[in-house]
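#structure-requests
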Amino acid sequence: MTLRPLVLAALLPLAACGGGGTTTMQFYPLQGAIAEADPTLVIEATMQNVSGTSGPLTFRLPGRVRCEGTWTSLTPKTVSRSRGLSLTWKKTGGEVGAETKTVARVNDGELYAVCSDGRRVQGTFMIGSGTASGTGSATDTLGNVYKLLF
């Protein structure tokens, strides 16, 4: 008997879980050689793990230049602690605990990518808590400036 079907069956649920979804980010060239060559160009990037606070980022610049990097968002959390004595019918006894919640607000984020031609792309953006949408700007080491929307 071979173990191959058993191993595949065990790994299938893990593959289906994935890592938290993907979304696209659009880079709109505003200044530099890319904007001068084609001001209507839209560069589409893929952001992974958008339900988390950071993840991989991949995109291609003109000339089939592949860029890979990371995006991250600073999502603040509040921690509340409780302890004491409760004398109600439903909760007789002491109560000790801690609860962590995400604060609903606009959060700051950053992205950084290194491209196959050696250039580096760095940017900042704002993103809403619990959303996969935002806006920002980025620049690369060759003098291009981009507007970011996602």
